[in-house]
């Protein structure tokens, strides 16, 4: 029996991923309104251990963003000026040979207030130029509609997605995009890491928990999440109707969780974590709330306001593929002696068998294969890895960046991806996160670099913004050219 060599499928979509709020900069240019990302709290040298401080938001932050008074240090950093540099950056991506580029459309560039009677033409025109240039370079756009860029004025008006009106505003924004870009974009993602609403409710759903009624925070967050599920289904419906052949994906933070020991309590605890994580994709793939989650909400006294046709909408308009981010695996334990860490280091229990990045994220290539096998077996839908990579400190030496550690990271993950495909997983593509160095969402730093392309900008926003090809740039170019056979 001949044992065939594990390979990636012909036409595999090797690519790159960025997000408007972490790459574009130009936070108040050409009519763009402030987004929730523009109000994220940031202070120089904030203690990284205080992870939540980076994602917190204060009345002062919001007032500064709404009044435009905080551009002294922050928003100009909120990116690498991709807004103006995109022709040069796309040329670098094309030089690497990427087939697909994941970007997001900043909602507040299209509807600065969120509910205007007409969209901001300058914002629409920017993305039309961007997608047009991508097409010219034979780079397929993969577009995220919601990636932390909700209009701040909208979120302040309704306390984010808690209010049903935001569903209408988002559906309207999405339809303006489908109408304008129907000849340029066929791959769409609705909500980036829709599960992260619990980890940072403000950036993902515009919710400021201090504005919720006391004790209502969890109720409001689940209500907002329900509104996002309905909005995701409605825009999936509209995208299919308006763009024949289009494909819409959900997007999950894949947090595959291991039991720290074979103690049944540890196994049960990790199973609960895994089911809670998968719930968000379940709703968008199966079109209904899983029974265990419904029971969990009941036990917690959470009663969702569900409109008459909501459940039909969820059932009728499910996604075409499942996309996800994968950075690390997690470990769960019920034992008191388990070493726990918090903050922007690894979230939860340390896994003694795995190394960790400088930011404490546990590096686990096998965990990626486990995630692929699990997701494909559960959903029987094509999968797309739309975020993966290693955030670390790079050093420039004589204009070079010798990032062999990044090559090692990707090589080990690509080997596992290739094995998963060999074992039957239908994997559409892969976009590395932050293929060009951009702002970290969790820490607002530039220091936490993911790219194959270095950008000369520091954590204070100083630098020439010059782009430099790292050693890994040439390695990824070779991987793409050989469709992953030469790692
Ligand atoms: C994911 C976000 C991305 C990106 C990534 C890396 O949660 O979808 O926007 O930020 O995390 O995280 P960080 O930038 O904090 O290193």
Automatic annotation (TrEMBL):
Asked whether the keyword Hydrolase is assigned, the reply is yes
The GO terms describing molecular function are: beta-glucosidase activity
Catalytic residues (positions): 387 (nucleophile)
Q: Which UniProt keywords apply?
A: Glycosidase, Hydrolase, Plasmid
Q: Which Pfam families does the entry link to?
A: Glyco_hydro_1 (PF00232)
Q: Which GO terms describe its cellular component?
A: cytosol
| GO terms under biological process | carbohydrate catabolic process
The keyword Hydrolase belongs to this UniProt entry's keyword annotation: yes
Q: Which InterPro entries match?
A: GH, GH_1_N_CS, Glyco_hydro_1, Glyco_hydro_1_AS
The UniProt entry's sequence similarity note says:
Belongs to the glycosyl hydrolase 1 family.
- Protein name stated in the entry: Beta-glucosidase
Q: Which organism is it from?
A: Pantoea phytobeneficialis
């Amino acid at each position: 029996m001949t044992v065939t060599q594990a390979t990636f499928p012909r036409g595999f979509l090797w690519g790159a991923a960025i997000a408007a709020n972490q790459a574009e900069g130009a936070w108040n240019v050409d009519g763009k309104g402030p987004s929730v990302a523009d109000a994220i709290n940031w202070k120089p040298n904030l203690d990284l251990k205080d992870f939540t401080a980076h994602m917190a938001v204060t009345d002062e932050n919001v007032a500064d963003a709404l009044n435009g008074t905080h551009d002294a240090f922050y928003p100009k950093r909120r990116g690498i000026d991709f807004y103006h540099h995109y022709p040069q950056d796309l040329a670098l991506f094309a030089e690497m040979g990427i087939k697909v580029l994941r970007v997001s459309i900043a909602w507040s560039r299209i509807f600065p207030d969120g509910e205007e009677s007409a969209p901001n033409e300058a914002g629409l025109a920017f993305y039309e130029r961007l997608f047009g240039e991508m097409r010219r370079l034979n780079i397929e756009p993969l577009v995220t509609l919601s990636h932390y860029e909700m209009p701040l004025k909208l979120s302040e008006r309704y306390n984010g997605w808690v209010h049903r009106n935001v569903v209408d505003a988002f559906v309207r924004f999405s339809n303006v995009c489908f109408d304008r870009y129907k000849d340029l974009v066929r791959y769409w993602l609705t909500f980036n890491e829709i599960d992260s609403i619990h980890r940072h409710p403000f950036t993902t759903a515009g919710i400021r928990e201090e504005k919720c009624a006391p004790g209502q925070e969890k109720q409001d967050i689940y209500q907002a999440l329900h509104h996002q599920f309905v909005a995701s289904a409605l825009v999936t419906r509209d995208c299919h109707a308006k763009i024949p052949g289009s494909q819409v994906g959900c997007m999950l933070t894949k947090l595959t969780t291991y039991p720290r020991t074979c103690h049944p309590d540890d196994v049960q605890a990790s199973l609960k974590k895994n089911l809670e994580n998968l719930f968000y994709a379940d709703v968008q793939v199966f079109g209904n709330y899983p029974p265990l989650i419904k029971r969990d909400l009941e036990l917690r006294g959470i009663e969702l306001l569900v409109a008459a046709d909501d459940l039909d909408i969820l059932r009728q308009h499910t996604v075409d593929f499942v996309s996800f981010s994968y950075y690390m695996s997690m470990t769960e334990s019920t034992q008191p002696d388990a070493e726990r860490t918090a903050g922007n280091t690894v979230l939860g229990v340390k896994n003694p068998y795995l190394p960790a990045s400088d930011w404490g994220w546990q590096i686990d290539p096998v965990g990626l294969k486990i995630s692929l096998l699990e997701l494909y077996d559960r959903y029987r839908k094509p999968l797309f890895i739309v975020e993966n990579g290693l955030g670390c400190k790079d050093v420039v030496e004589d204009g070079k960046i010798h990032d062999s550690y990044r090559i090692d990271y990707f090589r080990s993950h690509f080997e596992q991806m290739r094995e998963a495909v060999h074992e039957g997983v239908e994997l559409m593509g892969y976009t590395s996160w932050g293929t060009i160095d951009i702002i970290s969402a969790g820490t607002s730093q530039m220091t936490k670099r993911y790219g194959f392309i270095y950008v000369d900008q520091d954590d204070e926003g100083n630098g020439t913004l010059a782009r430099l090809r790292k050693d890994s740039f040439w390695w990824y170019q070779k991987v793409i050219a050989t469709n992953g056979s030469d790692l």
